[in-house]
Amino acid sequence: MASTVHDSPGTRPGYGQLLRTRGAWTFLLPGFLARQPFAMLTIGILLLVSDTTGSYGTAGTVSATAGVAMALFAPQAGKLADRFGQAAVLIPGVVVHAAAITLLTVLALSHAPLWALLAAAVPAGASTPQIGPMVRARWANKLEGSPLMATAAAFESVTDEFTFVIGPVLATALCTNVHPAAGLAAEAALTLLGGLLFASQRGTQPQPHRPAAGAAGDGKRVSALSVPGVRVLAVVMLGIGTVFGGMQVSMTAFTEAAGKPDMNGLMYGAFAAGNMIAGIVCGVVAWKSSPQRRLLLAYPLLVLATTPLWAAHAMLLLGAVGLVVGLCIAPSLITGYTLVERLVPAGARTEAFTWLTGAVGLGQAAGATIGGQLIDGHGASAGFLVPLGGTAAALLVLLALRRALTPAPSSVVAARGVGHREPVAVD
Length: 427
Description:
This protein is an all-alpha fold and about 425 residues long. It contains 15 helices and no strands. The termini are close together.
């Protein structure tokens, strides 16, 4: 097996070294604030619409519409950010998002018909700022050619999952203790404030990559989705998204049926906490196996962990199983982002990250929709079948197309500075 890459003899890259990167805190702090709404959006819609309509199926459909719109438009926003700069995309985007959330909230409280809610959910989801991918792109810009990129990928996964611990708990607390619309109101306010603060940090954003006339390939940009491995990873992330969506709607229904709706945030928080803990561990381990091999080991464990969810009928048992599922998600997420950094040219970094994030959002939307329908027809526990079905289907694709995750020599050269110096296992 290969040895671990070191910055210097006797020194292994770690979180402390990563956070001492010059200028990192200038985008990490506003980025953390700005990414909180990402975890509040779908559950905020779910709680508001279920309260005003009395149907988890309807609420899941509206939430899913926002998720689909986000998944479809996020890569386009990533392309624009790569080409024109992050601030140029973020500033108008957060303003549109706040306005769209306000419209959706007013319509829901006015008991507007479903078609009106769906129409408002489209711009609400499409304008969701992609802060996570933009932060990852800034790390890649800062750490070009450094072995700290793998640590940065783990750190970002931990930050994402910390967001999924705080966001749902905050949104649920506001919706159940203040007002059903309070969760979305907070989401819009945080998006506007955090997004503008993050956009103001122009010194750390990657330089725009505009195709030059007469350049190689007739000046055409390489699309991240044209890389076969990225398409495989998108399917992998789609499966992970069904876990998030299925868990959200099913835990909401489960706690409602148990007469303890205020426990929803805590239950989902336990699931997200497992993800965060595993992410921290992944970031401090000196991995000797290749990321491809790690993904092929981690994903089957995730499928296995989701299997007993539907049979957990006690609150404590469900929380414990949810924690285990969370522990199994982070290794796949982190490895997926590490791989895409190895596969994609530097000029398409933000787009590549948004494809993966968008795939998670699309899977989350599908999980919420299908889970809501199953819950309406067969009870709260039926919704927990969605995470199992989604991850099992994605695993089949991963196993069938696993060779696409091995970068070609030309891809490695093109992707210089995006993690390609991670050691490869040698027998």
